[in-house]
TrEMBL record:
<dbReference type="InterPro" id="IPR036388">
    <property type="entry name" value="WH-like_DNA-bd_sf"/>
</dbReference>
<dbReference type="Pfam" id="PF01638">
    <property type="entry name" value="HxlR"/>
</dbReference>
<feature type="domain" description="HTH hxlR-type">
    <location>
        <begin position="14"/>
        <end position="111"/>
    </location>
</feature>
<keyword id="KW-0238">DNA-binding</keyword>
<keyword id="KW-0805">Transcription regulation</keyword>
<dbReference type="InterPro" id="IPR002577">
    <property type="entry name" value="HTH_HxlR"/>
</dbReference>
<protein>
    <recommendedName>
        <fullName>HTH hxlR-type domain-containing protein</fullName>
    </recommendedName>
</protein>
<dbReference type="InterPro" id="IPR036390">
    <property type="entry name" value="WH_DNA-bd_sf"/>
</dbReference>
<keyword id="KW-0804">Transcription</keyword>
Length: 124
């Protein structure tokens, strides 16, 4: 698991700032969301996030190095992987549920035609 030394953070160093160093980039949390929703293969994660393939490849490497996700090879040539959340990644799901609730209440317009009546929580 990657740790972030508080002394290396600008401004007021705290666990929030340290956490954002690892997962604060937009695509990182969307990758975690996609894996939690059952998209475990690269192409499915790319489709679910809508991000460029190179960004997702970079985020997967970063999240794996940080211990948030793990991967298991399912094919050798070419090498391909299934991705899964580690305990650390599972612990992020309550954070994503909080962002979901906040965004639903404060960010998405009530009359947005793509708004769902109910969103699926990531935690039980």
């Amino acid at each position: 698991m990657t740790t972030v030394p508080l002394a290396e953070l600008p401004g007021r160093p705290c666990p929030i700032a340290a956490s954002l160093e690892l997962v604060g980039e937009r695509w990182a949390l969307l990758v975690v969301r996609e894996i939690a929703l059952g998209s475990t293969r690269f192409g499915d994660i790319v489709r679910g996030t809508g991000a460029p393939r190179d960004r997702i490849a970079a985020r997967l490497k970063t999240l794996e190095a940080a211990g948030v996700i793990g991967r298991t090879a399912y094919q050798e040539r070419p090498e391909r992987f299934d991705y899964h959340l580690t305990e650390s990644g599972q612990d992020l799901l309550s954070v994503l549920d909080a962002l979901l609730a906040w965004g639903d209440k404060h960010v998405v317009a009530p009359d947005d035609p793509r708004r769902l009546k109910r969103y699926r929580r990531l935690t039980a």
